Amino acid sequence: MTAYTNLNVVPFVSVENMMRLVLTIGTETFLTELAKVIEEDFRRWEAFDKTPRVASHSDEGVIELMPTSDGTLYGFKYVNGHPKNMREGRQTVTAFGVLSDVGNGYPMLLSEMTILTALRTAAMSAVAAKHLARPSSKTMAIIGNGAQSEFQALAFKAILGVTDLRLYDIDPSASERCAKNLAGKGFSIRTCTSSQDAVEGADIITTVTADKQYATILSDNMVGPGVHINAVGGDCPGKTELHKDILLRSDIFVEYPPQTRIEGEIQQLDADHPVKELWEVIAGKRAGRESDRTITLFDSVGFAIEDFSALRYVRSKLKETGLYDDLDLLADPDEPRDLYGMLLRCEARLQSA
Amino acid sequence: MTAYTNLNVVPFVSVENMMRLVLTIGTETFLTELAKVIEEDFRRWEAFDKTPRVASHSDEGVIELMPTSDGTLYGFKYVNGHPKNMREGRQTVTAFGVLSDVGNGYPMLLSEMTILTALRTAAMSAVAAKHLARPSSKTMAIIGNGAQSEFQALAFKAILGVTDLRLYDIDPSASERCAKNLAGKGFSIRTCTSSQDAVEGADIITTVTADKQYATILSDNMVGPGVHINAVGGDCPGKTELHKDILLRSDIFVEYPPQTRIEGEIQQLDADHPVKELWEVIAGKRAGRESDRTITLFDSVGFAIEDFSALRYVRSKLKETGLYDDLDLLADPDEPRDLYGMLLRCEARLQSA
To answer: What are phi and psi for residue A236, nearest 5 degrees?
Structure first.
């Protein structure tokens, strides 16, 4: 790999290179380091341009652009959500992203983000739990054992020391696959036959189901005092996972309220229902958990700054690992005003070849 | 090149392949065919999702995302505008774009769009002039002879039969370069020493200067009856090229009024000053030019649908030319829910290699 000094070249991290990057660094180390970058960016939350995602909805799903900037770097993610894809052998969610230099507008990184989004979502969940769950938490129930479940488990192990997992999915083969994939990774794992069974005695409950509908993965009687709920799956209008009564009993923490009120579990509540911004807890401006009996809820929908952090982290790893390709993405004429001349010189080059 | 059947693969048109594509098809044929696709899409204007661009402004410039969808395809362009870049040997404007399948959200094309944007802007200008300029138009003045000037000239020749060019730039070397680049392409070219000199007797006046400031490239006395003005350069808040009095005498045609009122020449006018939508002329719903003495003005700022058309056209040329690369952009596990398992299988593959 050459150093990226040519103005036309943008470093590109393919799916293959993202996998190699994660394996080279180690999944748990990657999640831990990424969590640190997310925390860094959440501590300087006020420095970012924030805007709700730009969504294009259709009957089948949604395509979204999620831009943000800290004034020095600009990042955006393209992400789709198409629940029916799974039945056709495609991913429900795929994503890629770009990081750019605000000073000249040139992209500095293009990266796959399907895998990276699963990693950043898991790192974000664990960061929130680090600040909100009881410090002694060791046991986590994971309701919904799809594409994100192993990443969630590994992040909570690496960052919080969670080692006991209870897995539940309406499809038992999903729980079996998750348990098999996590075998030998230092967990004690129990697959469960009901969500009630899974949450019994759990310190943390992660809900990460995929259907686009109002569902009640957790009902009120299943959540006891002191539990931290990591609600990942409810992330668009019409898609929620928790019974409203749980929300009314919980201390609710969110990423960016204008977006979460539309997309998160709290779409079930009044628009003025009090919620707390997670960045204030991370920045030390506000307390997290108030008592051992408080039910804390991280109503996670995924915000552009987390993707920005993830792209920033990946970029920081390129030089040492060389795990990228050079992409000829930007026209770079010898004389900047001579774009057409570049075409003429290409013609001359091809004719003389 | 392999057929793009693998779900992980997105066809990618690099700068090199875009140049080869234009040269293989021929620049004028490319512009003519692209103009037809733009007209097709403008005729079904009402089928598109339309939204003003999503801009991130900084002291140095702007980074924008321009999405649109016709319900079947989704496209967006990333584009920056940084006037100071030229002094640092970079392009003022660089761009890339993506076309996706609305049905499953998967990207179907990633393409460089720095060159493509110059081509689509020129094709759009010529389409507007075809519907607005006097049919006998043969002479065009081009004020501002930077990166877009040759493309404008070639589009007006290919689509309208404009053969006489008068070039003016505050930097005479820019006019000389433009004239040299267009030598042997079938034009009669005169480089001029003032904009007054250039516009004298011209049927069409194209203004395409680059400075981000309120400028008066054309003053009122320079524009006679019957002229068509193709105002390309004024395209963001605070950047205009025409004296307000010209606007008040002109029949003004625009792409998407909510965007043009912010970015175009008409930012100088009252918010309710009457303007006509170009798509209505192209669709036959409204007359274009009213008389031989009318001054028509296309207040061009560039709209997402034009980029969508350009991406659609480029994609239609991939199979026959093979001028693309396969980009490993999308994670494609054997079993869609098993994203983490894909990582494990990559690990096993690397260990056994």
So the answer is: -155, 165
> What's the CATH class of domain B9-115+306-348?
alpha beta
CA B42 – CA B120 distance, rounded (Å): 13
% of chain B residues with pLDDT over 90 = 82
pLDDT band for position A236 (cuts 50, 70, 90): confident
Domain borders along chain B are: 9-115+306-348, 128-302
Max CA separation in chain B (angstroms): 78
Which residue of B8, B14, B100 is in closest CB contact with A329?
B14
Confidence band of A353 (pLDDT split at 50, 70, 90): confident
Residues of A in contact with B328 (CB under 8 A): 14-16, 112
A334 is catalytic: no
Locate tokens 């494609």: which residue? B332
Two structure tokens written together for B185: 């392409």
pLDDT digits (tens, 9 = 90+) for B9-60: 999 999 999 999 999 999 999 999 999 999 999 999 999 999 888 999 999 9
Selected residues 103-132 of chain A with any CB under 8 Å from a CB in chain B? 103-107, 112, 114-115, 118
Instruction: Round to whole Å and give the CA distance between A310 and A297.
Output: 23
The CATH class, in words, for A134-301 is alpha beta
Pick A15's closest partner by Cβ from B12, B22, B328.
B328
Pairing relationship of beta strands A325-328 and A9-13 according to DSSP bridges: antiparallel
Check B177 against A51: CB less than 8 A apart: no
φ, ψ at A22 (rounded to 5°): -65, -40
What ipTM was reported for this prediction? 0.92
Condensed to tens digits (0 to 9), the pLDDT of residues B288-324 reads: 999 999 999 999 999 999 999 999 999 999 999 999 9
Catalytic residues of B: 235
CATH number (3.30.470.20, 3.30.1780.10, 3.40.630.30, 3.40.50.2300) of A9-115+306-352 reads 3.30.1780.10
> Touching check for B151 and chain A: CB below 8 Å?
yes
Architecture of the domain made up of B128-302: 3-Layer(aba) Sandwich (3.40)
pLDDT at A4 (0 to 100): 39
> Which of A51, A105, A346 has its CB closest to that of B94?
A105
Q: Which residues of A touch B148 (CB under 8 A)?
A: 339
